[in-house]
Amino acid sequence: MTERTHETQIINADRASNVLEQVSDSTVRNLVGLIVADARKRFIRWEGQTEDEWRSSLPESDFDMAFFVEVMVETFSKRDLVEKILAGTSLEDASGWNIA
Predict the structure, then answer these.
(1) With a threshold of 0.85, does the pTM exceed it?
(2) Which conformational region is residue 19 in: left (phi greater than 0), alpha (psi within -120 to 50 degrees), or beta?
């Protein structure tokens, strides 16, 4: 396990919530909300979870929730691309991007 010198925190959580509330497409808003909830759950130490297990699930540094939300909103707003990927098309074939 990597030793941390400070507690990892979620930053820009209020801004992230504001961005999410402003998304007019309910599908995009709900998909991003699901992932935000999963990310937030990582910061909770659950009963039975060891300190090492919990810490290993955290990011190495503070987590910018607003940046995370903004990227997800932009990504899930590309509905045609998302639908192709959900149908089994590779990212490269669906998007034409060759970014590894």
Answers:
(1) no
(2) alpha
